[in-house]
Amino acid sequence: MKTESGQLQIVVCKGPSCSLLGGDALQSWCEELAAAGLPVNHNISGCTGNCLESPVVQWNGRYLTECNPEKLTGQLIEDGCF
Questions:
Q1: Which CATH number do you get for residue 63?
Q2: Which domain holds residue 16?
Q3: How many domains does the structure of the chain reveal?
Q4: pLDDT digits (tens, 9 = 90+) for 58-79
Q5: SS3 string of the chain?
Q6: How many CB atoms lie under 10 A from the CB of residue 49?
Q7: Which of 1, 2, 49, 56 supports an S-S bond with 13, CB 3.0-4.6 Å?
Q8: The model's pTM
């Protein structure tokens, strides 16, 4: 979802399973997008309860499971976020 300032709100799960299976790479990717000047506001959350489908990212009120930076980028482009 976009915030009032027009930024895309992305929440990366940093529970144990997600962290071990790529959550850190997703967090770094979001930081890189923001540093490049793209309208991304990223946060982290505790466990989302989707451990069997880790790592998990939430945006627009839904979850993207078994996620990696490439999968998230493709979904955001498909959704017209960039």
A1: 3.40.30.10
A2: 8-78
A3: 1
A4: 987 789 999 999 999 998 888 8
A5: CECCCCCEEEEEECCHHHHHHHHHHHHHHHHHHHHCCCCEEEEEECCCCCHHHCCCEEECCEEECCCCHHHHHHHHHHCCCC
A6: 11
A7: 56
A8: 0.83
